[in-house]
Structure formats: structure tokens, C-alpha cells
Amino acid sequence: MGLMHNAVICHRENNMLFNSSQLGTVEVDESTIINFAQGIPALENCTQFKLFHNADSANPSVFWMQSLDDAGITRHVQH
Known about the structure:
By secondary structure, the protein is an all-beta fold. It has strands spanning 8-12, 15-20, 24-29, 34-35, 48-53, 62-67, 74-78. It has a four-stranded antiparallel beta sheet, with no helix packed on it. The chain has a three-stranded antiparallel beta sheet with strand order 1-2-3, with no helix packed on it. The radius of gyration is 12 Å and the shape is globular.
């Protein structure tokens, strides 16, 4: 499917600004994109994701997994 082009605001070298429905405008380093070739269960059309966390936390335990294929899909991930 590829990156959702209408959600990508701008590209700069290996970084892009992505407009997430839930997280707002976020910067994505393209080298940190997680790829699932077959998608994930219930989200087979979404193959590219980025993990975000609260930048104020030195040791975060909660992350948000943002689909880069669909700006409206964000999942909570905790370890």
C-alpha cells in the first residue's frame, strides 16, 4: 500500500512530517519505520508503522504504534 500520501506533510532527507489523526503532526525518521510485509491481524492493509512514546519519559513503558498507511489507526503498546 505504501505511505498515505495525503497524511505526509513534507519530506526532508530521511525524515518526514506525518499528520496522525490521534497524535497530530509527528516527525518520522524513515530508518525507524517498522514493516510488516503481510500487515498484522485485522489490519492486513497496513504494512508500515512507527512507534512513538512520551518524549518526557526517560524509560517509557507505553508506546503508540501509528500506521503510516492509515492516519486514523493508532494502537497502544505496553511492555
